[in-house]
Amino acid sequence: MSEQKTVSFERPVLRGTIQVPGDKSISHRAVMLGSIAEGKTTISGFLDGEDCLSTIDMFRKLGVTITRKGTDVVVESPGIANWQTPTETLDAGNSGTTARLMLGILSGSSVTSKMCGDQYLSKRPMKRVTGPLGLMGAKITSDEHDDFLPLTVEGTTLKAIDYQMPVASAQVKSAVLLAGLHGEGETSVTEISVSRDHTERMLMQFGAQLTQEGKTIRIAGGQKLTGTDVVVPGDISSAAFFMVAAAMVKDSVVTFEKVGLNPTRTGILDVLEAMGVSMKQLEEHGFSGERYGTIQISHSTLQATEIGGELIPRLIDELPVLALLATQAEGTTIIRDAEELRVKETDRIEAVATELRKLGATIETTPDGMIITGPTPLSGGTLQSYGDHRLGMMAAIAGLITSEPVHIENPSCIAISYPRFFEDLSDLVSEEIQ
Ligand code: S3P
């Protein structure tokens, strides 16, 4: 029997201050660059979600010593040139970031390894990285289908390329840059739309030199990284669920402390503003090349908006919960240019529309997005998570505004990015969740 979680509140109100767990993208990269570097890296605020634990597990199999104490992680590495050939298959679990960035890193290493993933990751496209890596001379082979895991990587000497990206994807950009770090010559990557730039910022923090001109990033091969201290801010993609909750639920006011405010990730704030959400930025700081700050969001009357173009990569992971928000906005919200949603942990266009329709939402799907008309009162129901953490959390947040309870099938996937999600939800709502 599959597990289920019920979200049911009598007139909930969200009030209080929350510090969401560490940024997933930054946590992955801190372990990756700390393991490429020779020496010691200390990471504080690390996300102990399942995806990031998959990354730690891979590097342990490669001979890197990684110790954890709560959200502090210490990485002690002999450096990429001295990694051990793993005796077991490297398992990326559900994590696309682990798989794609590691394909880039392992291609330029001196080890041979096989990588697999779970049932969902094994259906997600890998050619988007193995294609450019192949142009660099990477030796990546498959047992069955060359677009999917499992794949075997035989580390080799790579050559530089100038790569024009066909999709807006930070994972593809990062895989090529991290391969380029160990290539012969200067590699360049040109994006179609600017995607999250955590890899670039962190490479510089570890002592590498990169240059950026418009949408082109260049990195010279043969640079050595040096271990350093990394502080991980809260994940704005996790905060997004409670930001939307605060905006939708009457009388709510929620303050988000130490939340990441890297401009390549703050598209959600632009959309909330466009929808009429009352928002205050109380503080802003910068550390380790990443910005963070305090944001306060209050319940507001919502208007429909249009979300597309260059905004999409800056909020790609927030689109499921923004679709939920749009059901409560006056007018028709259009999400376009977001075809990438179809190759996430699940097809998030079909999954979001199917699940929200079960609650009575008016949503049309298009090849590259959704058209949502509101405001619509939502009823309760049983929603599927599709093994996708962001679908599971979207369903839980929907439960705050439904007339009847929302039952979430297979909610355990939420631990992929937010292990304490339900505890934080009940702390903010201060009511019981069954
Ligand atoms: C990520 C990049 C994005 C995002 C994913 C994390 C990263 O994926 O959806 O959750 O850490 O680089 P794409 O690169 O496929 O857009």
SS summary, helix count: 12
Report the major sheet. 4 strands, mixed
How helical, in percent, are the residues?
25-40%
Number of domains: 2
The total of beta strands comes to: 25
CATH class category of the largest domain: Alpha Beta
- Strand residue content: 25-35%
Alpha-carbon distance between the two ends: 18 Å
Bulk shape? globular
CATH topology of the largest domain: UDP-n-acetylglucosamine1-carboxyvinyl-transferase, Chain
Ligands present: shikimate-3-phosphate
Average pLDDT score: 96
Rg is: 21 Å
Structural category: alpha/beta
State the CATH superfamily name of the largest domain.
Enolpyruvate transferase domain
Low-confidence stretches: none
CATH architecture of the largest domain: Alpha-beta prism
Record the strand order, biggest sheet.
2-17-19-18
Per-chain topology:
Blueprint: E1 4-7, E2 15-18, H1 24-36, E3 38-44, H2 50-61, E4 65-69, E5 72-78, E6 90-91, H3 96-107, E7 112-116, H4 127-135, E8 139-142, E9 151-154, E10 158-159, E11 162-164, H5 170-180, E12 183-184, E13 186-190, H6 198-205, E14 210-213, E15 216-220, E16 229-231, H7 236-248, E17 253-260, H8 267-274, E18 278-287, E19 290-298, E20 306-307, H9 319-326, E21 331-335, H10 348-358, E22 362-366, E23 369-374, E24 381-384, H11 389-398, E25 406-409, H12 421-429
Parallel strand pairs: 2-17, 3-16, 6-7, 10-12, 11-13, 20-21, 24-25
Antiparallel strand pairs: 1-25, 3-5, 4-5, 7-9, 8-9, 13-15, 14-15, 17-19, 18-19, 21-23, 22-23
Helix pairs in contact: 1-2, 1-3, 1-6, 3-5, 4-5, 7-9, 7-11
The structure holds shikimate-3-phosphate.
Shikimate-3-phosphate (S3P) binds at residues 25, 97, 169-171, 174, 196, 316-317, 340.
